[in-house]
Structure formats: structure tokens, C-alpha cells
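Assemble and predict.
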Amino acid sequence: MEVYDISYLSLLACFLLLLIPLAISYYFKPEFIRETIISVSRMVVQLAFVGVFLTLLFELNNSFVNLLWLLVMVLMASHSTISDVKLNLKKLMLPTVISFLVGNFLVLFYFNMFVINLENLFDARFLIPIFGMFLGNSLRSNIVSIDSFYEIMKRNENRYHYSLSLGAKKHEAILPYAKKSFEITLKPSIASMSTIGIVALPGMMTGQIIAGSSPILAVKYQIAIMIGIYVSTMMTVVIGIFMTIHSSFDNYGILKKDIFR
Amino acid sequence: MNSELLKYNDVSISYGEKEVLSNFNLEIHKGDRILLKGRSGAGKSTLLKMPMGFAHPTSGILYFNGELLDSNTVWDARKRIAYVSQDLDIYEDSVNEFIEEVFSYSFNEGKLDRNKLRRLLVYLGFKKDILNMKFADLSGGEKQRIGIIMSVLIGKDIYLLDEITSSLDSALKEKVANYFLERKDWTLVIISHDDIWEKEDVKVLQVDV
């Protein structure tokens, strides 16, 4: 099947479409014009950078460099998690990094080895986009889970103390809140799996079909990637909560006040 | 001389810059019943939170069972001290689920005596359907009574009771106070503004700077 290239001129034609939202904004809310232009420009610059960068990375295709890039992705994701939640960056950075690393790497290597059967496990063309999909999804969930967990803990501090006073060990007293945040976090992931393909075709599958893959192959990849995403998300979330618990409670089992900003 | 269960040694409490209690000393022996009195804000509640590790003295130390109370020993202390506070606005699910959760802790496993629970519920004026009610729908007094029942059900060496009768009517106040005071071998430290606790074998201790 033929892959239809988009020429730079055609891309420019696509920008013409933006005149519609700009015109509507002009009429309803002129401030949106500025915001739209800034957002679109940021998107173009960021994606152009990624395009150039990935081209270089794919040409080089050095296992060590590829892994190093994954590490950079993890560090950026961890930073983003902690700055999105109202928590103290320094205290929780390391546990968050570890949760992303363990949760995503284990699934990634299993995936590349046993599902796609790659000859070179560190091949940039698979390693980076697949890891990106795992990481992007677990990032969103890790933010929700850490944020909701500490919010629930803070709100239920009296009840938590009461549980400790009734003889609960730290993990027994924490468990109800971990369960609740686990539920809040994973419900959307479960829901998105059950509606996929009906409401919208997922991005990866769409991309593969446009690039010339058969729908069946695209579906097989999509099923595999959805399972991979779900497993890596769950692992990241669980490891994230348990790793951060270690540094956010004092030896008396009391939630440290200085973990909140 | 009875063995000393809990000891406050030169304990001071400050809230920010303000010292509300200085050099407080108290030894509590098995079978003692002590009523702490003093103006509000004098640090009485904070004193009762200390053995549980929920509050720490600004200076001074505590001993529990002859051992220095610190982050290692506090876990054992929590298993042996019942701390019942006035603020039991803690739970969203039903009373029954709450009880199930508490008795699922490894320390409490197998300790739930349903007959005793039933007797206590009746004694404190509950009807049986209370177990299916949501905790959040209970009145302040009902929550207080559930808290009292839980502490008695688990059974501890020493009871720290912080205003546990404040939201109860006079008949229930009397019942609760009698229940604790009639058990002569129980060790009680009580904070209360209710006269009902001032019985002859209760030692009243004024807590002030």
C-alpha cells in the first residue's frame, strides 16, 4: 500500500483551517486568538524538535543512547508528576522516578521480547514510541493516584490516627485510602478499554492504518499495546504509592506535614 | 506499690511561641483513675495524644511500661492504650463495616465478641439497626458511644478518655461513667467537664501552667 506524504505546502494548507477557530474567537472571545496562536506555535516547535530529534536517534540507533533517552523521559515525567500535585518535589522525586522506571521498563522489555519478538530489544523505532505510550499513560495515572492518595490521607487524618490507636499497623491503617485512590485512578483506564474502537479509533491504530498496515495487524498491535499500557500503569501507580509512603510518613507512622507545599 | 504504666517526665507544651504547659509530671499506675481538669487550651488533650505518638512534647519525655516512649516503642503502646477522643467524625461507611475493618487488623483478629458487642449496644441505648446505619448519619452522641464501645471491645491496659461524654444526655453520661468506674482494675485517665466523673476514688488533677 502507498504511504501518502504530506508536503510542507500541504501542511501549510492545513494551517488555513485554523482561520475558522480564529474567526470564531474574534467574534466571541478575542483573548482566545492570542492563546490559540501561542498554543499552536508551541505545538509546532515541540513536534518539529521531536521530529528532528527522533530522526537523529533512529539513524544513530545506539542502544545506550536510546536507554539514556528513556531515562530522560522518565525524569521529565517524574518532574511533571510532582509539580502537578501539591507536594514537595525534593522528598518525592526519587520514589516517583523509581515507580516509572520499574513499572514501565519491566513491561516494555517483556513486550518487546515476547510480544513483538524484536531481535534487538533496544531498537529505537520500537523502544521509544512504545515506551512513550506506556509512560504517557502511566504519567497521567500516577498524577491522579499520588494526588488523590495524599488528598484523601490529609482529609482523613483523624480517622487514620484512630485506626492506629485501635491497633492497626501502618500499612493496615493506610490500606483503605490506598484502595480508594487506586479505584479513582484505574477506573478511567478500565472504562477506556471497554469503549475503545466504538467511540473512537485509537491513535496508534489509526496511524498504522494510514501508514499502510492491514486493519487486523493494527488491531493486534492495539490490543497488545492496551494491555501493556494497563499493566504498566497499574504497576507504576502501585509502586508509586508504596514508594512515596516510605518517605512521607515519620517513624511514628504520622503523615509528615512538610510533604505538602 | 503498683507497677507504673505511664509516666510523664517534665513535659512541656508550646503552641508556636506560647508555652501552655511547663514541666508536667505524672505517674499513672495500674488501677489509677485520674481526672485532668484545667481551662481549655491548657494542653490536656495534647497530653493524652502523646502516648499515642499523635503529639510530641516540646520538651520532656514519656515512659510507657518503664520504657522510653519513642518511634520504636509507640507501636506497642498503641496496642495497649485505648485512646477515645471526642472527635469521632471519621467514617463514611456503615457502623458494621467500620467494626469489620477494625477487627481485620492483625492485632485484633479473632477478638470480636459479638455477644459483648450486642450487650454493649443495648446497655448504651442502641437499637440493633444501628449496625447498618452509615457512620456519617449518626449524631455526635451516637458516634461517641460507638467509639466507647470499640475501645471496650478491643480491651486495653489503660484508657485515655478525652471528653467522651460531652455529647451525651445525662442518663447516658451516668451509664458511661459508671461502666468505666465500676471496673476497679481498669486504669483510666479522663478529661471531662462533666461532674459525673468526680467520684470518690477518682483523683482530680489540675493541669495549668
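Chain B is about 30% helix and 25% strand.
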